[in-house]
Amino acid sequence: MSNNKAILLLEDGTIFTGRSFGAKGTAVGEVVFNTSMTGYQEITTDPSYFEQILTMTYPMIGNYGTSTDDWESRKLFCSGFIVKENCPFPSNWRDEKTFSDYLKENNVVGLEGIDTRKLVRHIRTQGAMRGIISSSELDANKLRKKLDAYPGLVGRDIVRNVTLGKSYTWTKGVVDVLTGLECKPKPKYKVIAFDFGIKQNILRLLISHGCKVEVVPADTTAAQILKKKPDGVFLSNGPGDPAAVTYAIDAIRGLLGKVPIFGICLGHQLLGLALGGATYKLKFGHRGANHPVKNLETGKIEITSQNHGFCVDINSLKDKNVELTHMNLNDNTLEGLRCKKLKAFSVQYHPEASPGPHDSQYLFKQFTDWMDKSKKAKK
Predict the structure, then answer these.
(1) Cβ atoms within 10 Å of 156's Cβ, excluding its own
(2) Domain span holding position 69
(3) Buried b (16+ CB within 10 A) or exposed e, 234-267
(4) Separation CA 213–CA 78 (nearest Å)
(5) Dihedral over Cα of 310, 119, 47, 87: its sign
(6) What is the total count of domains within the chain?
(7) How much is the mean pLDDT over the chain?
(8) 370: Cβ–Cβ under 8 A, 6 or more apart, which residues?
(9) What's the pLDDT at 379?
(10) pLDDT in the model for residue 117
């Protein structure tokens, strides 16, 4: 276990001192927390965590090591990673390297040995805030200058920092980890997926539901999409303030009513804005694999995977011909919407899980059903 010191400085002056693991260095970002017990590797490779210093509430992280099969994108996107205890001796038949070595190889600074309960309570009380984590510079005054120069997330378009910037075709379906069998039926639907910071398990599930998928950059226009004549359009997850991604909002407005649309997370927020709604920043966001959401149509409670710091304002959608379909039971915020007239629906949470429960994967079937109806209506 490392004895090298590392510190976390929050914008309100609070300092946490612990031990360094992972890469040596300094990083700034928004300090947030995640309540998942597993899935740390999928979390670090989720582009939605770009410019965030992530704190895990579960006390021991790294006990099953890491595997290249668990990546959700092309690289790690979080700025820093904080745990109560990093496990240096993982045990798993799929393990390839320790979590510390994994962070080190991917240049992510880690901090362990602090009271994560105290940090999480502080964030819950004061709200998510800017912070700086360092294992190479321990002078708080010097770190303060770097932290003060960091602008935060509100009002900034950081989708441009995570989108790949070029189109590509995705062909892999969901693979059973035990049998190695891939679910890849013959494609029936042509889907164009916006890459606002897309997770790979979304793409796998689209393939496994009979879709042929082309992924396009975040700034692709509605005219460019319609020229491809898709059966459906998918709006992906991604980081930051949705109101700042104006080009995506414009593109979605140009697609509404012309092709079935399904959005997740940032895609949900962008759809809400395109429908005339508004968004706002949550006090400390929703991040974890155990958040209860009520399906307002069926009355059933779904346990969901979540990762977002912004939310669609429920009141802003009044008189917009929009149905509210899902509600967060922790704070009664909006988790899903639908506009049948314009053939669009979305959810704030992550039905593709990875990590997380599979309660909500029926939404991918709902998307293919909408595409079926749309194709029949055109005949």
Answers:
(1) 16
(2) 5-148
(3) bbbbbbbbbbbbeebbebbbbbbeebbbbbbbbb
(4) 27
(5) negative
(6) 2
(7) 96
(8) 232, 260, 262, 343, 345
(9) 73
(10) 98
Q: Which of 78, 265, 311, 339 is catalytic?
A: 265
* 159 sits in which H/E element: none
What DSSP letter does each residue of 290-316 carry, written as one string? EEEEEETTT--EEEEEEEEEEEE-GGG
Asked if 194 and 262 sit in the same domain, the reply is yes
Residue-level pLDDT at 3: 59
Tokens representing 124 are: 């819950």
167 within a domain of the structure (yes/no) = yes
- Cβ-contact 27, 147 below 8 angstroms: no
CA distance 81 to 33: 10
Catalytic residue among 209, 268, 326, 350: 350
Decide if 52 is inside a domain: yes
Would you call 352 a catalytic residue per the annotation?
Answer: yes
Claim to verify: residue 49 and residue 178 sit in the same structural domain: no
Q: What is the total residue count of the chain?
A: 379
Q: Would you call 182 a catalytic residue per the annotation?
A: no
Q: What does the alpha-carbon distance between residue 350 and residue 304 come to, in Å, rounded to a whole number?
A: 7
Cα-atom radius of gyration of the chain, to the nearest Å? Answer: 21
Instruction: Give the global pTM.
Output: 0.96
Q: Can you give the pLDDT at residue 1?
A: 44
Distance of alpha carbon 48 from alpha carbon 267, whole angstroms = 11
Cα(303)–Cα(292) distance, integer angstroms: 5
pLDDT of residue 36: 96
Is residue 187 reached through a cis peptide bond, with omega within 30 degrees of 0 on the bond before it? no
DSSP 48: G
Q: 351: which residues sit within 8 A by CB, 6+ positions away?
A: 264, 304, 360, 361, 362, 363, 364
Q: CA 350 to CA 307: how far, in whole Å?
A: 8
Domain membership of residue 90 (yes or no) is yes
Q: What is the CA angle 335-248-338, rounded to 5?
A: 30
- In this prediction, the residues of the chain whose per-residue pLDDT falls under 50 are 1-2
Tokens 């300094």 locate to: 26
Question: Residue 95's domain is classified under what CATH number?
Answer: 3.50.30.20
The DSSP string of 181-196 is -EE-PPP-EEEEEEES
42 is an active site residue: no
pLDDT digits (tens, 9 = 90+) for 260-302: 999 999 999 999 999 999 999 999 999 999 999 999 999 999 9
Q: Give the residue from 118, 148, 178 where a domain finishes.
A: 148
